[in-house]
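Tutorial, part two.
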Amino acid sequence: MPEVAPLPERVLDEIRRARRHPRYTQTEYLVLRIILSNLETVLGQVRHPVGDVLDLYCGTSPYRDLVPPHTRYVTLDINERYGVPDVVTEEFLPLPDASFDLVLFTEAFHYLRDPEHGVAELRRVLRPGGTLVMTVPLVWEYDRRIVERRYTGPHLVTLFDGWDDVRLMDNGGYSVAWATLTGRVMRGIVELMPARVRPAFDVPLKLGALFLNFVATLLARGELRWHAGPYVLPFGLTLTARRPVD
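Running the prediction step on this input gives:
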């Protein structure tokens, strides 16, 4: 595996801040805020003792402070670009059986080429009764150079057949997906401009994001009234599941 140097600390701090404390002036504010809210909810509902935690494909570990009290926090990633994790490996879960009480796996499960094997490995490293907390995108761009998957709710739940307490939450709906994609288009327009003029559009982009997020927040509230399913379009999903007590 080629070595990858960590990004400058100031950049890492900003990435971590943007995810843990998203601002209204961020174009992806709404979806980040909903993911954060859903993680706060499900992690706050963990009732079993938590001694060992695995932050899988951890990035900057922005949600570390949301995890229930624990004695050991292990970070794993494929390289050191977003910091220096405890385990650096491209192999999926080269860790001992039944070694964690909680696995936090945010925005990365969709990169696994073999999801069935991935689910089996997640179950293997969890202790009986341990909890998996996972988020995945649905309506978002993908990289043509690598394999990425997208999961609907029923598909994701089916992968965890045989687990206990499998629960699913939508990360937003139509309005949040619209706002996030519109924000991406806004940023894309700025990225098309010559590098020397982009800084001049920093403030207009933030103001545009502020207006976009305000409108989308109102639309999302109205969406609760007019939308009753069964057709849904969340930006992504949050899933929790527990390894059965053997």
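The chain has two domains: 9-173+231-242, 175-226. In part three we will examine how such features are distributed along the chain.
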